[in-house]
Amino acid sequence: MSTQTWDPLAYGKNAAFVHRLASGVLEWLAPKSAEHILDIGCGDGQLTERIAANGAVVVGIDSSPEMVAATRELGITAVEASAESLPFKDQVFDAVFSNAALHWVRDHDATMSEVRRVLKPGGRFVAEMGGHGNVAAIRVALTAVLAIHNLGDPAHWENFFPTTKDYADRLARHGFQVQQIALMPRPTLLAESGMAGWLRTFRRGVLDELPPEMRDSVVDETVALLAPFLCDDEGNWTADYVRLRFIATV
Q1: Helix, strand, coil % (nearest 5) of the chain?
Q2: Which candidate, 33, 100, 219, 222, has a CA 20 to 30 Å from the CA of 208?
Q3: How far apart are the first and last CA of the chain?
Q4: Is residue 3 a part of any domain in this protein?
Q5: Is 195 exposed, middle or buried (0-12, 13-18, 19+ CB in 10 A)?
Q6: Whole-structure pTM value
Q7: Residue 99 covered by a domain
Q8: Greatest C-alpha distance within the chain
Q9: Domain count, the chain
């Protein structure tokens, strides 16, 4: 999988819908005052800040130093780290949370082992991520454009979008009891920058590996392929999101 890089300013402009649409998974988390909660993939800290507003003691981790810095600017404790190797002692958190981040993780078995290790007995793992069928049209269009220009193996850039059965089975193998898990289609209205902004934000890792002179062409051609299906007559773009949400306990 390609290494994705992040720009907090671009993320705030083109991806603010990520934390704005997280009310459902926050309800599943139901953070309580004085609980110690870990936010995996905290991004720019907007959602982490909402968790802390409930009185919880929150720590965020992210693999992007730029995103960690943005979270710290909000007054939230944040650490640069990967989900597969958490820099915390055993059994220190009441809950581990993640929103729109786990589909970027390479090794989900390692991540689950680490989450299990840092959770207190009775603790909960609550997350939402891309699920089976997520951004399928976008992925097909981008894959087609890359193939036309002979620009490498699209599988190299793929995220992990599991089915409910696959993820529930994985959680169970790591000692979790799955309380709820659901796959939810969620067509998502994009920012004013539309599909071009989405591609430059969420497929930056793909674009950065292309020859510089091809990047704008790849974006433009992908946008043109998708416009008849994901853009309305007024120029509003909707991404074909499908989310996997779960709560599991130890």
Answers
A1: 45, 25, 35
A2: 100
A3: 30
A4: no
A5: buried
A6: 0.89
A7: yes
A8: 54
A9: 1
pLDDT in tens, 197-227: 999 989 988 999 999 999 999 999 999 999 9
- Is residue 1 a part of any domain in this protein? no
Q: Which domain holds residue 85?
A: 8-249
Q: Which two structure tokens, joined as six digits, stand for 90? A: 């055993």
| Domain at 146, CATH number | 3.40.50.150
Which stretches of the chain score pLDDT less than 50?
Answer: 1-2, 14-15, 17
Q: Is 237 in contact with 230 (CB distance < 8 Å)? A: yes
Give kind and range of the element (H or E) at residue 174: none
Enter the DSSP assignment of 179.
E
Continuous segment of H or E residues that includes residue 209: none
Helices (H) and strands (E) in the chain, counts: 11, 9
Whole-number average pLDDT of the chain: 91
| Secondary structure class of 134 (helix, strand, coil) | coil
Task: From 64, 57, 63, select the one nearest 37 (Cα to Cα).
Answer: 57
The C-alpha atoms of residue 32 and residue 143 are separated, in whole angstroms, by: 43
Count CA atoms closer than 13 A to 189's CA, side-chain side.
6
Q: Would you say residue 2 lies in a domain?
A: no
